[in-house]
Amino acid sequence: MDNDKFLDKLCDHYKDTFEISKAVKERRDKCFIILCLLESASFLLVIDPQFIVKLFTDVLNKKNEIIMMIGCNVLQTTFWFFIAYVLIQYIQAVFNIERNYTYLHKLEQKIVELSDRNAIFNREGEHYVSDYPIVLNLIDLFYKMLCPLYFTAINVSHIIYEWKVGDYYLNILSDTMLCIIIFVLTWFYFFEIHNKISKWFKDNISFVNWLSMKLHGVLKKV
Fold it and tell me: Where are the domains of the chain?
């Protein structure tokens, strides 16, 4: 294959990869909105459970045109399940996008190398990070640091509330397991997305480094 044909195929591949990345970004944004709504409803279940139960009961009855009663325990477990599911979708989308940035940058470098032109084909590479506005750094911190911590605080408060006022221990144990899964997923996401923080903990706290190596070893074998 001559250089021009290979360059055309490379450009087509770059375009397809960028469109895929764009679609994943839309899915990430949608998941984030849904996650915010679910966490807000979860928080309201702690503050005013009767209001949330009544709200969802009225919406369900109006939609199905039948009379149904939803218990608070059922609603809480439903929220835990959907929070876990949407969180998984969100994390997958975020890391897919992060990995695509590196891949697109490599494609750009190869296209520039083969095109015999000045380095102008670098939208996702050097151009993206050059003179990066501080406000975008703050927005990035909001998404990747403040939101995970905020959601974790809501989830911990919610499960503590369930243990204090709950009557059905099977339901509480089920919700606790889902809460632990959500916490572990959030914990992994937080430290994977913040490499500098992760490195600091590994370098300064030997137990964290040992635990990280063990977990990575176990998960790779699964």
Answer: 3-221
